[in-house]
Design brief:
Layout: H1 2-30, H2 51-106, H3 135-149, H4 154-166, H5 169-176, H6 182-194, H7 201-205, H8 213-226, H9 243-254, H10 273-285, H11 292-297, H12 304-317, H13 323-332, H14 336-349, H15 355-361, H16 367-379, H17 382-394, H18 397-407
Helix pairs in contact: 1-2, 2-3, 2-4, 3-4, 5-6, 6-8, 8-9, 10-12, 12-14, 13-14, 14-16, 15-16, 16-17, 16-18, 17-18
Amino acid sequence: MKQLSKVCCSFLLFLCFQSTLMAQTQKEVLGITAEDIALDEKENLFTHYDEKVVLYYLYLTIASFVVMSVSLVSITCLRRLAHNKKQAEMDLLTEKYQHYIAELVSDDYEDDMLQMLDASEEQNLALSLEDISKPLHRELLLTEILSMHKYIAGKSASKLRELYLTLGFKEESLKQLKNRNWQVVVKGIYALSVMNIVDAYPLIFDLVGHKHPKINEAAMVAHIQLSTDPLAFLDNYKGLLTDWHQYRMHSMLSKLPMEEVPNFDRWMDSDNENVVEFVIKMSGFFQQAELAPKVARFLLNDSQAIQLASIRALSIIGTEEAIEPLINVFNETEDNQLKIEIIKTLETLTSDENLSFFEQQFSIKNYDLQLAIAKAMTVIGEKASQRLEELKGKSSEDIQMLIKHAQKTY
C-alpha cells in the first residue's frame, strides 16, 4: 500500500510537470511573449490574454483537480479494502485459535497434544506451519493463549504453559524486555508474568524504576504479583509513585491473601515521601491498627499529602488514640482543607465528650468548615445533636440554613 501511494504521488508530480510544459508550448504556439503578458497599470488583465489561453488554463486546472481527487479517493478506497481484508483474516485466525485452545484445554490430550502439523481436515486440534511461523499468526495465537490462561487453572493452565514454551514464545518474550519500544517491553513483562516464567523474574524486577512510567508500572505490578516479598522494591525506590501507580499497586495487594500482605511499618521511615504516603494509605486500607501511633506521628509532617493520608488512614483504622493528635493539628494548621478532613475523621472517632471542641470551632467563619462541623455534631452523640438545635435557634438565617442542610431537614 505504501508503494501504491508513492506511485500515485509520482503520477501527480508528473501531471504537474506535464501541465507546465504544455502551458509553455501553448505560449509558443500562440506567440505570446514576456512583453505581451506584462501587466499594464491602466489596462485590464484580459486585454493581454487571448480568451483561448484563459480557457486553456481553466480547463487544465479543473482537469488537474479531478485527477487529484480521483487519485486520492482511489488510494483511500484501496487502503480501506486492504484494511478490511486484513481484519477479516485476523478475525478468522482468532476464531480458529480460540477453538483450538478450547479443545486443547478441555480434552484429555497427553503425549500427542502438540502434534499440530499436517493434520487431517477432520481433526480440529491442529495448527498449520503458517500459524507457528508467520509473525501476525504468532501474535494472535499468543494473545489467545494469554487471554485464556487468565480464566483457567490446574491441568488446563499447565497445557497452555507447555504450548507457550513449545512454540518458543518464552524466548520471544525475553527478547521483548530489551526492546526500545515501551509497548513491546510491557507485552513481554505481561506474557512472562502470566506464564510464571521464574527465571525471568530478575530481569523483570530490574525494570522497576525504569525511566519510562509504563514500563516502571508494569514491572512494579509484576513484582507484587510474583515476588514472595511483594513490596521489596520500595526499600530503595527513588522514583515517583503517581496516584495511578498507587491505585494499581493497591489493586494487586488486595488480591493477595491477608497473611501475605506485608506490614507497612517497614517503609514508614523511607526517604521517599511518595513511598511514605503510599504505605500510610495502605496501613489504613488493610486496617493495621498496631501502626496507628506511628501514623499519628505524621499528622505534623510538612507534606500536606502525607498529612491527608495520615488523617484518612486513622479514620479507617478507627483508634481513639488519634483524637488528641488530630485536635492538636487542627488548632495548629491554617489549611481549611486539612481542618475539614480532620473534622470528618473526628466524626468517626469522637463522642459527646468532645462536644466543647466542636462547639468552639463552629464559630469559625468558613461555610465548608462550619458545614462539616454541623454534620459531625448531628452524629457524634445525642447531647451534641441537641446543642446543634439550640445553636440553630439562636443563629442568623444563613447559619440556620447551613444547620438544616447538615441535618438534611429542608
